[in-house]
Amino acid sequence: MKRTDLAELGEFGLIERIKSKVTTSQPSTVYGIGDDAAVIDSGSHYTLISTDMLLEGIHFDLSYTPLRHLGYKSIAVNVSDIAAMNGIPKQVTVSIGLSNRFSVEAIDELYEGILSACKNYNIDLVGGDTTSSQSGLVISVTAIGEVAKEAVAYRKGAKANDVLCVTGDLGAAYFGLQILEREKQVFLENPNMKPDLIEHEYLVGRQLKPEGRTDVIHELKEKNVVPTSMIDVSDGLASEILHLSQHSGCGFSVFVDNLPIENKTLLMANEFKMSPITAVVNGGEDYELLMTISQQDYELVKSIPEITPIGFVTKEKNNILVTNSGEHVPITAQGWNHLTTQK
Ligand code: ADP
Ligand code: MG
After folding, report:
1. d(C-alpha 95, C-alpha 131), whole Å
2. In the structure, what pLDDT confidence band is assigned to residue 135 with cuts at 50, 70 and 90?
3. Which atom of ligand 1 is found nearest the CA of 37?
4. Which of 111, 104, 101, 79 is closest to 92 using CA atoms?
5. Which phi-psi region, left, alpha or beta, contains residue 24 (left: φ > 0; alpha: ψ -120 to 50)?
6. Is the confidence at residue 52, as pLDDT, over 50?
7. Alpha carbons 22 and 66: distance in angstroms, whole number
8. pTM listed for this prediction
């Protein structure tokens, strides 16, 4: 039988392949594979379910990731996927795979972070699973959330002339990771050197301790605005725009000048001799929300400081970055493809 390399399909191709084999039969399954969370009809509202797995050596490096932060992040990334459906998380289950390399105190620390996030987002931890692992620490979190039926936001639904908006700022988490990797190399070469991370607290914090934007979900609700489409920015702007484009059947024009980038990110891009735009477009782990809002509703949300308009939706399925000199650059990147980097 033919053997196809996983790298040939890539992560998204593989998910598509699995999806193509799946049919759903429960009337309560409103939306299955393909969005940030599954949507289940619970009668009075929709229940949202999202799951994410973090693996040591793939998603985190324990030589510079404090377990407390890791615990916090494992919850925050799931909160982000529930928020991307315009929902609020209510419960989580947390499953861990570990070896005796970890002490009881280390796992206590991990759970300090998990519980601190649960407290922050007002989520109940209601279960999980514990198993041994031969390949380092594994953390798998499933989040359960709620959204009013008329308020659910999918990756599909963007319409021509809608305003493309993003929350917070982009690109910082990418440089946070570059700094951590750089300091790790310095430390490996000279263990007496102490990493100077305080100076880069913002960028490193964006990588180690991201937040899911439930604050923005509450603000949208207050203004009575439902985005026409939404996704969270976990793999870089390009990848998320292509998802919205594919699901909604339209295109996007993004103005480089409008991209929200912190000064600290710009300075670090300069230090690394890298374009900050590349970090925004192809980096990852910002966990901001990318959404489209009708022109009419945009008037209601433009006063929300966390929301920045960065472009608009076009009828043609062309996705382009418009540079400040007016150049049109096609958006093609596929985000971070973990599968191509694995043996
Ligand atoms: P996100 O980055 O928002 O977490 P993913 O790219 O991980 O989204 O997943 C996209 C969609 O594919 C989601 O609906 C997810 O539930 C689904 N999915 C991912 N892996 C699998 C799998 N192995 N089996 C079934 N569905 C999957
Ligand atoms: Mg997502």
Report:
1. 8
2. confident
3. 14
4. 79
5. beta
6. yes
7. 39
8. 0.95
Atom of ligand 1 nearest to the CA of 81: 3
Residue with tokens 């608009």: 312
The length of the chain in residues reads 343
DSSP symbol at 56:
B
CA distances from 263 to 63, 171, 267, 270 (A): 28, 11, 6, 11
Q: How far is residue 14 from each of residues 71, 140, 245, measured CA to CA in Å?
A: 28, 20, 19
pLDDT bin (cut points 50, 70, 90) of residue 334 is low
- Mention every residue, 6+ apart, whose C-beta is less than 8 A from residue 3: none
Nearest to 113 by CA among 70, 144, 54: 70
Do the Cβ atoms of 290 and 233 come closer than 8 Å?
Answer: yes
Which tokens is 20 given?
Answer: 């193509």
Residue type, 161: N
Q: Which two tokens stand for residue 151?
A: 């308020």
| Substitution candidate for ligand 1 out of 30, 33, 229 with most atoms within 8 A of CB | 33
What's the 163 CA to ligand 2 centre distance in angstroms?
20
